[in-house]
Amino acid sequence: MAGGPSRALSHWSATLHSQWIVGVVGSGFRLLWQDKKAPLSRRPPACKPPSSQEARSVLQAEIVTLVQKGAVEKVLDHSSPGFYGRLFAVPKSSGGWRPVLDLSQLNTFLRTIRFKMETPASTNMMGVKGGPKLLQSKGHSLELQQVDVPVALLCRPQARRSLSVCVRSPPRQRRICEGLDSPRDRAERHSQISERLRRNQFRLCCVDRKAQQVGLTKNRLGMTRATCPALPLLRASLRTLASILGQMESMALLVPLGRVHKRPLQLALKPYVDSAHVDWNVLVPLQGWFQSATLPWLDSDWVCRGVPIALPPPDTDLFTDASLSGWGAHTDRQTASGLWSAEQSHWHINLLELEAVALALEEFRPSLHAHHVRLFTDNTTVAAYLNKQGGSRSPSLSRRTCEILVWCWHHQITLTARYLPGSLNTLADALSRSDKVIQSEWTITQGALLRLWALVPKPLVDLFATRFSKRLSIFVSPFPDPEAWQTDALAFPWTGLQAYAFPPFQLLSRVLRKAEMEGPDLLLVAPLWPSQVWFPDLLRLAHGPPVPLFLTKGELVQPHTGIPHEDPSSLNLHVWRLSGPF
């Protein structure tokens, strides 16, 4: 690393506790590699030159420039292998060519470091629970080292149990590179911030450590109350309304359902700011919508209530899914499903998925009251809208999301959403299609399996089941279930496992690969279909001839509806012993 930081290395070493940062300042940043090494070669691969003479000239000029700067050098000795990337040119939208060095293949061998931007909420939690490695106490103030988090915490003497979070610099000027300033720059900035803190500037919120809540300061409350009622009743400039919206957004995370109550104003202003040329001085008519949009922000009881610093662990997991014909949902002990009306069947699938969430919450309301509900859905849009309390892209989705969250608030339900792939959300998917047969979802009745257990030793674990379709007391569920032994049969090792498996036919290739690698004692139900690509692997792994299952009608059913297969013999199902006898 060149420049001021490296010249002040001795000061960095004396000031910081982090040896990693000192190493970056002194020696530069070193790439972190995975255990899997990047492929190296002694000769560059063949590369077709660009057809355009202009592009070739741009690349040649770029190489000359990089050599002159010392960024690259010509390889003279090919005895040492290296990684080669392709240099090419792409046309610019404004004309000309842009040189690009393609190192995308190299990125796959780098260790991925998760980065998450610090927020007031995460900083508050660090301030409340942080240890001596993060916090240094100086009188009534608590200061976080700037290389870790660029904020400072100020403890008010008149309320020792509370903290006020203060930003070191305006948000647009905060960058990670601030942590790489020299100690002298940090000292000057600290002096400036201390003076601003003394004048109570940049104060964002107050943290009540006793109640474990964070809320707005009185200064922030006064700003909104003074601005909204002062507007004329007929119209106001777009700039003024955008300023009010910005104030709402700055406080949204610190008040209950803050983003929900800023959405009406945001959606009302969206047509003005989405135009090609935004006129910030245009006058926007203020009708009844504006009063209803700003009324919650003038409610002192609601605005001052604050929000929890951290959510408690979830009490209930709720799984939902929707199809074009109906919806389905379940918790660990309850199921619910229904069909759409003729009008609803024409809705967009995102809106149907969101409506399924609303119907499931209403159906399970008695058991969800005052709970933290963790929702699992296979629709990423629904998960994002619920977690972000609406959005600006789809007004209909945003309005329905806000209605759901307000309903949850009145019933003391805390709702958080997570994405779950559809392949794992099997029960909710089956419930949403309760009027249809799902060809990939079949299970053998207990009576038919009793005949099988009389021929072969009964295994211990049912690998592909739910609590409603399990055929053994110990089972593996495709989704989280407190009664299940494990979640997702393909995600944990099978070595030494005595198991029974009747997987969906489309998973047979993956099941056979896993069985070959990990060697379980497995009874696998699979059809005798010699034309399938996985059939040679099945023959190679099988120990002895398979046992045919002579199933009659009614012994092969849909696991969640009980609908029988019309002709089970057409599947030619057999039981195969894999990896050895029991």
Description:
The chain has 582 residues and is an alpha+beta fold. The chain folds into 4 domains: 92 residues, no CATH class; 82 residues, no CATH class; 117 residues, Ribonuclease H-like superfamily/Ribonuclease H (Nucleotidyltransferase, domain 5), CATH 3.30.420.10; 136 residues, 3-Layer(aba) Sandwich (Rossmann fold), CATH 3.40.50. It has 20 helices and 25 strands. The protein has a 7-stranded antiparallel sheet. A 7-stranded mixed sheet has the order 20-19-18-21-22-25-23, with no helix packed on it. Strands 14-13-12-15-16 form a 5-stranded mixed sheet.
Task: Briefly summarize what is shown.
This protein is α+β, with helices and mostly antiparallel strands. Helices cover 33% and strands 19% of the residues.
Write the topology of this structure.
Elements: H1 4-7, H2 9-15, H3 19-27, H4 53-69, E1 86-91, E2 97-102, H5 104-107, H6 120-129, E3 135-138, E4 141-144, E5 151-155, E6 162-167, H7 183-198, E7 203-208, E8 213-216, H8 218-227, E9 235-237, H9 238-251, H10 258-273, E10 283-285, H11 288-294, H12 300-303, E11 307-308, E12 316-322, E13 326-330, E14 335-339, H13 349-363, H14 365-368, E15 372-377, H15 380-387, H16 395-410, E16 414-419, H17 426-432, E17 443-444, H18 446-453, E18 461-462, E19 474-477, E20 486-487, E21 498-501, H19 508-518, E22 521-527, H20 535-541, E23 547-548, E24 556-557, E25 573-578
Parallel strand pairs: 12-15, 15-16, 18-19, 18-21, 19-20, 21-22
Antiparallel strand pairs: 1-2, 3-4, 4-5, 5-6, 6-7, 7-8, 8-11, 9-10, 12-13, 13-14, 17-24, 22-25, 23-25
Helix pairs in contact: 8-9, 9-10, 10-11, 10-16, 13-16
